Amino acid sequence: MRAIIDRFQPLAALAARLLIAWIFIYDGYVAIIDYGGVGDYMEANGVSRSLLPLAIIAELGGGLFVAAGLLTRLASLALAGFCLTTAVLFHAGSGDPMAMIQLYKDMAIAGGFLALAAFGAGRWSLDAVLFR
Fold first, then answer.
1. Which residues of the chain register pLDDT less than 70?
2. Helix (H, G, I), strand (E, B) or coil at 4
3. Please, what sign has the CA dihedral across residues 124, 126, 129, 132?
4. pLDDT on residue 94
5. Where would you find the membrane-spanning parts of this chain (predicted)?
6. So what's the pLDDT on residue 1?
7. Could you tell me the CA-to-CA distances from 26 to 53, 62, 64 in Å, in that order?
8. How far apart are CA 116 and CA 109, in angstroms?
9. Amino acid 2: pLDDT
10. Which residues of 5-44 are buried (b: 16+ CB within 10 A; e: fewer)?
11. Which residues lie closer than 8 Å to 113 by C-beta, 6 or more apart?
12. Which of 7, 26, 77, 86 is most buried per CB count within 10 Å?
């Protein structure tokens, strides 16, 4: 069984990076095309819209770095922090069942990013090519 798992490890690591990065790439893109709406959402939750450019950089930039496997450990740590921060700022304490689902989702994604930070991007990544 271990040999089978080891054989597919590079593919699994690539798939994991692409799947976890996709939501951030997409959300960063949406924040750009609906800048006003996202800013309004932030302010409705007590977060200054002036932080939106930083959120876009974190989501879009961090997502692209993770997807490419470039500086993956650093980008993953940053995105884990981003997930935990958004969980607290936007979803914790509201009592709304949907907000609780979002809170748990953000925490789970942060856990995935921490696993990437711990184990790296895998063999099929720019990190593997550039930093052998």
1. none
2. helix
3. negative
4. 80
5. 12-32, 52-70, 77-95, 107-126
6. 83
7. 15, 12, 10
8. 11
9. 86
10. eeeeeeeebbebbeebbeebbebbeebeeeeeebbeebee
11. 20, 66, 76, 77, 79, 80, 83
12. 86
Name the amino acid, one letter, at 28.
G
The amino acid at 105 = K
H helices of the chain, in order, are 2-7, 9-33, 35-44, 52-56, 62-68, 72-86, 97-119, 126-130
* pTM of the predicted model over 0.85: yes
Letter for the amino acid at 10? P
SS3 annotation, 11-35: HHHHHHHHHHHHHHHHHHHHHHHCH
Domain of 83, in residue numbers: 2-130
